[in-house]
Amino acid sequence: MMHLLLIDALNVIRRLYAVQERPYLPLPEQLTDGTQQQIINNTETMLLQALQRLRQELLPSHALLVFDGRDSQWRQQRCPEYKANRKPMPVILAQALPALKQRLQQHGFQCFTDEKIEADDVIASIATKISQHQQQATIVSTDKGFLPLLNQGVAIYDPFARQQLTNEYVQNKFGVVPEQLVRLWSLTGDSTNNIAGVAGVGPKTALELMALGDTLTDALAHADCPKKLRDKILSQKEAIMNYMQVLSLQTNLELGLNLQELRLADVRGEPQ
Questions:
Q1: Which pLDDT does position 71 carry in this prediction?
Q2: What is the assigned CATH class of domain 3-75+92-171+249-262?
Q3: How many angstroms separate the CA atoms of 85 and 81, rounded?
Q4: C-beta of residue 40 within 8 angstroms of C-beta of residue 101
Q5: CA–CA separation, 264 vs 109, rounded Å?
Q6: What DSSP line would sit under the chain, residue for residue?
Q7: What per-residue confidence (pLDDT) applies to 94?
Q8: Given this model, what pLDDT does residue 272 score?
């Protein structure tokens, strides 16, 4: 069986880079060229070590590092505040990315970027298609936005905690099953993506409401739904539906990838 690792590249790289940058904050751009290069070299070394560890732990046959496209704006057009609180990529890292991608490919790890598409949507589309064809796909990321894909047979691995994220993990952490997460975050808000949610609706209230029906409409129609809460949700229903669209990953993109080109070589340089 094919086992494809889909690595959320910047999710991993930015965390590794932050470890190297931290001793030089708050103004790393003012460092000497030599020190800046050392930060990048150390980041590259840590990244390659992490990738080799993933190969040893997860035993993939194929792998792809997916990078964000810079021109994907449809979510911001629907919701201008989406990710508006995100820190920009550090200048040193941004300048080093092209060379870093080349180094990754020299070590046998293919990279993919579509400037018009967010990495999350690329990963979700590939993972879903692989799973539908009864093959194994594992997403490597700490981004909770991938967790709804667990109900589609996709595996998710946190490379820093070094653990598989499961339905049980979601239930324990959020109190719902994976397919309910987008609705939960649309009600309570999602600080990671700067989604406001409904004012005054916290996790406890949202979970109580969601327990009343399989859909928001069913829950609001339930006899046990408090009138004050029903009125509040109905007054914000358009915004909630918009949040749900923004937080839902696209899974039907046609990307034109050749899976054979993603096959990893074994230690002898032969395809697995």
A1: 81
A2: alpha beta
A3: 8
A4: no
A5: 7
A6: --EEEEEEHHHHHHHHHHHHHGGGTT-GGGS-HHHHHHHHHHHHHHHHHHHHHHHHHH--SEEEEEE--TT--HHHHH-TTTTTTPPPPPHHHHHHHHHHHHHHHHTT-EEEE-TTS-HHHHHHHHHHHHHHTT-EEEEE---GGGGGGGGGT-EEEETTTTEEE-HHHHHHHHSS-GGGHHHHHHHH-BTTTTB---TT--HHHHHHHHTT-SSHHHHHHSTTS-HHHHHHHHHTHHHHHHHHHHHSPP--------GGGGBPB-TTS-B-
A7: 95
A8: 54
Global confidence as pTM: 0.94
Domain positions in the chain are 3-75+92-171+249-262, 176-247
Same fold, 3-75+92-171+249-262 and 176-247: no
pLDDT of residue 28: 77
In CATH, the architecture of 176-247 is Orthogonal Bundle (1.10)
Residue 92's CB is within 10 A of a number of other CB atoms, namely 20
Q: Identify the pLDDT of residue 26.
A: 86
Residues of the chain under the 70 pLDDT cut: 267-272
